[in-house]
Amino acid sequence: MSKDIVKIFDTTLRDGEQSPGASMNMEEKIQIAMQLEKLRVDVIEAGFAAASPGDFEAISNIAKEIEHSTVCSLARALSRDIKAAGDAILHAKRKRIHTFIATSPIHMQYKLQMSPDQVIKKAVEAVAYAKTFTPDVEFSCEDAGRSEMSFLKEILDAVIAAGATTLNIPDTVGYRMPDEMGAMIRELCDFVGDRAIISVHCHNDLGLATANSLASVKNGARQVECTINGLGERAGNAAMEEIVMALKTRNDFFGGVDTNINTREIYPASRLVASITGIAPQPNKAIVGKNAFAHESGIHQDGVLKHQETYEIMHPEDIGLDNADTIVLGKLSGRHAFKEKIESLGYKLSDEELNQSFARFKLLADKKKEIFDDDLRAIITDEIVQVPKTFELKNLQINDCMTGIPSAAVTIMHKEEAITDAGIGNGTMDAIFKTIDRISQIPGELKDYKVTAVTQGKDALARVTVKVNFDSELPAFTGHGLSIDTMIASARAYISALNAFVYEKGNKSKRDRGGI
Q1: Phi first, then psi: what are they for 447, rounded to 5°?
Q2: Where is 26: in which H helix or E strand?
Q3: Pick from 191, 187, 190, 182: nearest CA to 202
Q4: Residue 503 region by backbone torsions, left for phi larger than 0, else alpha for psi between -120 and 50, else beta
Q5: Burial class of residue 328, CB neighbours in 10 A (0-12, 13-18, 19+)
Q6: What is the DSSP string of 109-126?
Q7: Is it the case that residue 512 has pLDDT exceeding 80?
Q8: How many structural domains are present in the chain?
Q9: pLDDT tens digits, residue range 186-233?
Q10: Domain of residue 352, residue span
Q11: Rounded to a whole number, what is the distance in angstroms from the first to the last CA of the chain?
Q12: Do 50 and 174 have their domain in common?
């Protein structure tokens, strides 16, 4: 008997990126998309093509890279949005356009200022136009959670007739309770029958996104829209890892419903997204939090040692977390062992990327006694998702405020020339950043700064994430820096943001001239 499969529609690259501070450059988006394909995600919503030239370009490049997952672009029910989406996914082997319009009385009256009949007409026109680009068209009723059931049935009937193959019922503001959501989906599934797939997209404003999604699956939904680590606007979206592992762990409760997800890629995906966005899951986050499989209580430790299932309903290795295999490399390890370990963590590197990562590893191994898997993940992510290094930190010397006026001497490589300057500031980091501004002649305004330890121990790598604004016409750029020394990591992060700005500015100039 064939399995009853729920499709996983991952929107980390679209809705997830709308989390404050979670913006990603094109290289980072491609890296995440490739990891989502390793996860065997059914649909990757790669972005909102009409939102910006950068979003369009990222979707287009992802469409060319992905082999098996469906690549999707979001589009409002507007012809210009739909055309942008269709053009962006043109080269995808499997493609989908996801178009939407609001259907709740409050949205139709105050946001759209349209009558229900006008909304239906707009929805039908959007779906029909989207069908000229791809047979796989998804239609969403924005704010369906607060929409009237009679109107939902009317508009769904109309878009099915226009060719929609997936119907998404979003709880856009996280308003519904699980029993309400389940009953709503059951009624709509009965109404739609086998004419289309019913999907759900639940937000977490009341902390119920996963519960609402699972209640929907229990009542017939066969696609769930979700994100890695639950990223998303406001309080976020339903977390993919929670939905997948709930269906796997309680397969009995859900009547044998399953997903196509390779669960052993869940933890690597979580760490990659956290590393790129700088937004790590809270320690007690279900499934992927650093304490999710930790046992401190003596009673719990004793039970787990005697029989794992006394206090664990899942095995860490089920999500790709192997706590017994963390310290395997050191300063005497060779390139072959390094390559084998990297491949076991799920990375495929070019020869150049391998050489660069191995060189970084050897430098770290000279300074750090124990090399953990997360150290390696941090090194690799730092190397392979970077934009071209227009500026590169070569040397940093500081005098902190305890020994006098905070000052920094910085040497940066630019166009094969080493440029050195020094400056003072209100603090050590301020002195570093001001000196970098003077050397690059591109002043920046620091908007956000965060430092986290990659692993445990006094010699843990520091990962610094910054957001810097270099141009009022462009959004702030995110930069990442990695070092045992927090000040060096801070300088690298600031220069990383600077390089991202220079790269985007150059691409914007090319686009404005019609070059790309």
Answers
A1: -105, -30
A2: helix 26-38
A3: 182
A4: alpha
A5: middle
A6: IIII---HHHHHHHHHHH
A7: no
A8: 3
A9: 999 999 999 999 999 999 999 999 999 999 999 999 999 999 999 999
A10: 335-384
A11: 50
A12: yes
